[in-house]
Design brief:
The longest helix has 23 residues. The chain has an 8-stranded parallel beta sheet, with helices on both faces. Helix 5 runs parallel beside helix 6. Helices cover 32% and strands 13% of the residues. It contains 10 helices and 8 strands. It is of the alpha/beta class. It has one domain: 3-Layer(aba) Sandwich (Arginase, Chain A), CATH 3.40.800.
Length: 321
């Protein structure tokens, strides 16, 4: 939509009549909806709902990811002017994507949070769209995956991270961003035999049967081999893609709670995500963007690009269907 076509009162996050299409507005003004999509709770005819989850009370070290959804949205306003590079289609023109806003929850009732998030995502999925969630710390993936498993059965997880997040924890009432995939495996939410972790560079004695392509594997074997292995393991099963921003090296993404050196460069992550086209992606998230630790905004920019790639992957799955 051209600026002159929208009239004098322009802010497509509120005034857009056609939910599809690129956004040609000033990146420095207006509401910071994700990719300048329309803010809406109306899921009729929607293909994909982007929702924020500003929760960071499961972290082991530095908090601050509650500000992640807002920062990712703001950074994403630099992107909706052109189709994303390297994709043979324009997802914002072919799909109806909305910004569903943030999950509302009582920060003082932490124990109630998981079920509230599961119900939030369950409601979206019941109406038809998939979701891309903007975190928030990585614990949020577990309640989201519960909603996905209710709809699709056991989920294949494609997990980008510096940490496995499968450290043992048999107390399912604990809310911890380092043990939630242990619980997801043990409770039958994800299928470890058809799941892959990429970029890992912290020790864990037991990967629970999940295929691990650590950071050194990515650096030494290259993008093509990583993608080949992921597709081999996951096949055409329903897959959820979760991207912890600390998968990236802190040199390019310092704004995160538990940075670990030796990580992926942004070009590697971009190439892997692009070449995963063809997987049966049913949803995804980007988590652990913590703006207080990055005054440059580079981490939020990386998070916004990851989220945009997840939109592209989801749209490509729908094209295949």
């Amino acid at each position: 939509m051209a600026l002159e076509d929208a009239g004098e009162e322009v802010d497509l996050a509120f005034t857009r009549k056609d939910r599809r299409g690129l956004a040609f507005e000033n990146a420095f003004g207006g509401a910071t909806s994700f990719l300048r999509r329309q803010y809406s709770k109306d899921l009729a005819g929607v293909d994909l709902a982007v929702t924020g989850v500003p929760f960071d009370q499961a972290v082991t070290h530095r908090s601050g990811t509650r500000f992640g959804p807002r920062a990712i949205r703001e950074a994403s306003c630099l992107q909706p002017f052109d189709p994303p590079w390297g994709w043979p289609y324009s997802p914002l023109e072919e799909m109806t994507v909305i910004d569903y806003g943030d999950l509302a929850f009582d920060y003082a009732r932490v124990a109630d949070f998981p079920d509230r998030l599961t119900a939030h995502v369950r409601g979206i999925l019941a109406a038809g769209p998939g979701t891309v969630a903007l975190g928030g710390d990585h614990y949020i993936s577990f309640p989201i995956l519960k909603a996905y498993a209710e709809k699709f059965g056991k989920i294949s997880l494609i997990h980008f991270d510096a940490h496995s997040d499968t450290w043992p924890d048999d107390d399912f009432t604990r809310i911890d961003h380092g043990t939630m995939f242990y619980k997801a495996v043990k409770s039958g939410v994800i299928d470890p035999a058809t799941s892959v972790q990429i970029g890992i560079r912290t020790h864990n004695d037991d990967p629970l049967g999940v295929t691990t392509l650590d950071a050194r594997f990515v650096h030494e074997r290259g993008v093509a081999e990583v993608v080949r292995r992921v597709k081999e393991v996951v096949g055409d099963r329903p897959a959820y893609v979760t991207f912890d921003i600390d998968c990236l090296d802190p040199a390019v993404a310092p704004g995160t709670g538990t940075p670990v050196w030796g990580g992926l460069m942004s070009w590697q992550a971009a190439a892997i995500l692009r070449d995963l086209a063809g997987i049966n992606m049913v949803g995804g998230d980007v988590v652990e963007v913590s703006p207080p630790y990055d005054t440059t905004g580079a981490t939020a920019i990386a998070g916004a690009h990851v989220a945009h790639e997840l939109v592209c992957l989801y749209g490509w799955t729908r094209r295949k269907a």
